[in-house]
Amino acid sequence: MLRTFYKNMGWTETDWSSDNYSVFKTAGGMLSIWSIHEMTKDVTIPVSDTPDYFRGVTLSINVDAPSQVDEVIEKAKEAGAKILTDAHDAFWGGRSGSFFDPENNYWEIAYNPNSVFDERGAMIEMNG
Predict the structure, then answer these.
(1) Does residue 108 lie in a domain region?
(2) Cα distances (Å, whole numbers) of residue 98 to 61, 109, 110, 118
(3) What is the mean pLDDT of residues 73-94?
(4) Residue-number span of the structural domain to which 10 is assigned
(5) Does the pLDDT at position 128 exceed 60?
(6) Domain count for the chain
(7) CATH for 60
(8) Which segment of 1-15, 20-34, 65-79 scores lowest on mean pLDDT?
(9) Which of 48, 47, 31 is CA-nearest to residue 39?
C-alpha cells in the first residue's frame, strides 16, 4: 500500500527494493519503507486496529519554495493521503501543510525562508 502511495506521489523507487521493502530516492538521501506489519514482527509490539491514531513521529520534507508546499500537499491528496492541514502561511514566516499517508504516518511539508539548499536540492543548513 505504501509503495503505491509513494509512487503516486511521483517518487523514484530504486533497484534495492524487494517485494516487502521499498527504497525511494530523495534529494538528500534514501527513504526506506517497511510496512508497519513487517516492522512489528521484529520488535514484537502490537499494532492498533484503529486506523486513525498518531504514531508519535513526524516525518518532514523541507522544500526550497513556498509554492512547493502547495504542490506536494496537492500531490499527496491525489495519491490518497488524508490531508490534516492544507498549505498555509505559518506564524514563523514560512509555509507548511501536513497529511497522513495510508498507514497514518504523519508528514509535514514545510518551506523555511532561512533554509539553504545545495545544487542537488538537499537542505544543508537551517538558519534562524
Answers:
(1) yes
(2) 10, 6, 9, 24
(3) 95
(4) 2-43+50-114
(5) no
(6) 1
(7) 3.10.180.10
(8) 20-34
(9) 47
Q: Indicate whether 119 belongs to any domain.
A: no
Rounded to whole angstroms, the Cα distance separating 78 from 114 reads 29
Tell me which residue has cell 544543508.
124
Mapping DSSP to helix (H, G, I), strand (E, B) and coil, where does residue 72 land?
helix
H-assigned helices in the chain: 2-8, 36-43, 66-79
Cell of 60: 518532514
Integer Cα distance of 32 and 44 in angstroms: 20
Residues 35 and 103: beta-carbon distance below 8 Å = yes
Query: Cβ distance 97 to 85 under 8 Å?
Result: yes
Among the listed residues 57, 52, 19, the one whose alpha carbon sits nearest the alpha carbon of residue 38: 19
Q: Is residue 66 part of a domain?
A: yes
Lowest-confidence pick of 44-53, 61-70, 111-120: 44-53
